[in-house]
Amino acid sequence: MRLCTFEDAHVVGLEPLASPRPAFNLRCGLSTLLEKQVRAIRPTAVGAFVRPYLAKLTSQDHPYLSVNESTWLIGGPIVLVNARWVPPPRFQLPKDGPFVALQGDEVAYAVLAPDDLIDASPQNLDECLHQWRTRLYTRPAVGRMARHLWDLIEWNGDEIAADFPQLRRDEVHGYPSTLTLIGPSSSLCVHETARVDPFVVADTTNGPVVIDRDAVVTSFTRLEGPCHIGPRTQVFGGNIRAGTSLGPNCRIGGEVSASIVLANTNKSHEGFLGHSYVGEWVNLGAGTHVSDLRNDYADVRVTLDGRSVDTGHRKVGAFIGDHVKAGVGCKLNAGSVIGPYAQLLPCGQLTPKNVPGFCTVDHGRVMDGPDPQALFDAADRVTGCRGDEFTTIHRAVYKGLFDRGASQRRTAIHEAELRRLRRG
């Protein structure tokens, strides 16, 4: 059976992390959502329907995928899987079909025949989903649907434990004598290429600890499971708390609790990061702290797409987009949303909670940021330092985000100025 993962209109709930990438590239546990879906379905071929502006980037990052190809879609029976679907650890696709599996009123996955797919395209997919729900046999879906980033954070510890049995055990040969283990050794996985210095503690009492290939964990680090130190990630005397996934290729220090950090991000120095989702190529300066709890212990609210949303959780940190730069000593409030390429300058007080992409925060004021081409040139230099490449496709995707976000930036700057004048 072939698999096609698709994005529906609800991916907006996963911003700002889902803006420059397909939603199935988001990580939860030890793997991306796409990797989990492929493992659950075991398809013969894989395709994807993504937002049109992400098609070239998706093809660049996943050359084996058939991206936005309607002719490929109708080539035979297929399983359509929502990009936000997190499958259960053990999944067996029902043999009967066609059918649509629902969570609430959302399509989690569907088995469809070629005749059902003739008119389907990335532009009209939401309309097709509605038609399939009303016309085909429906059944309850198993697994979970990620509606917001705090869902993935909440599930991360469970997903680390669920992914843990899938690791290649032939690459693990006991654990280094330099490491002090608390808890069962069966819940510890240290890749044979990883470096673990003396005076490192791994606590597997409440879940697995995974130190991936070519990772470096320096002395006086404590790892509390479930947690994952990704490939080539370096941890410098850190306190990595339960429910945390790092990497790949990150530089991490200080205290990190129940957070997901994507590739190539720097948080090398002291500072707290809790219940947060951080994008790629982010730099959090020394002493940057991210609060994840209100003083009154009330549920945290987050601004998404101009609306204030109740998360239903007491502990929610920050959602930080790609290429964000936070200066030394920045303080982020619980429920902050920081868009891509935002520049946060320290001011001795809490940074505004809603900072659109490409804006600068200076002395607590939200204002227009530098010329985006200058930001892209800086990104080109930064990625080159890590042996990576900032391609023309990356530049085009982020430039499109900059253009589409103009009205959001104007509104946020105006509202921030009104708040400042009222305080004055």
Please explain how this structure is put together.
- The chain is of the alpha/beta class.
- It is 21% helix and 29% strand.
- The chain is built from eight helices and 39 strands.
- The strands form eight sheets. Strands 12, 14, 15, 17, 18, 20, 22, 24 and 25 form a nine-stranded parallel β-sheet that branches. The chain has a nine-stranded parallel β-sheet with strand order 13-16-19-21-23-26-31-34-37.
- It is globular, with a radius of gyration of 22 Å.
- The model has no long low-confidence stretch (mean pLDDT 94).
Morphology:
globular
Number of strands: 39
How far the N terminus sits from the C terminus, by CA atoms, comes to 63 Å
Q: Low-confidence runs (pLDDT<50, min 5 residues)?
A: none
Number of helices: 8
The structural class is alpha/beta
Helical content (DSSP H or I, runs of 4+): 10-25%
Radius of gyration: 22 Å
Strand content: 25-35%
Mean pLDDT metric: 94
Main beta sheet strand tally, sense and closure: 9 strands, parallel
Keywords, separated by commas or semicolons:
alpha/beta, 424 residues, 8 helices, 9-stranded parallel sheet
In short:
By secondary structure, the protein is of the alpha/beta class.
Write the layout of secondary structure elements.
Elements: E1 2-6, E2 27-28, E3 31-32, H1 33-41, E4 46-49, H2 55-61, E5 66-67, H3 70-73, E6 78-82, E7 85-86, E8 99-103, E9 106-112, H4 125-135, E10 138-140, E11 144-145, H5 149-163, E12 179-182, E13 188-190, E14 195-196, E15 200-203, E16 209-211, E17 216-217, E18 222-224, E19 227-229, E20 234-240, E21 244-246, E22 251-257, E23 260-261, E24 266-267, E25 272-274, E26 277-278, E27 283-284, E28 289-290, E29 301-304, E30 307-310, E31 318-320, E32 325-326, E33 331-332, E34 336-338, E35 343-344, E36 350-351, E37 354-355, E38 359-362, E39 365-368, H6 372-385, H7 392-404, H8 406-423
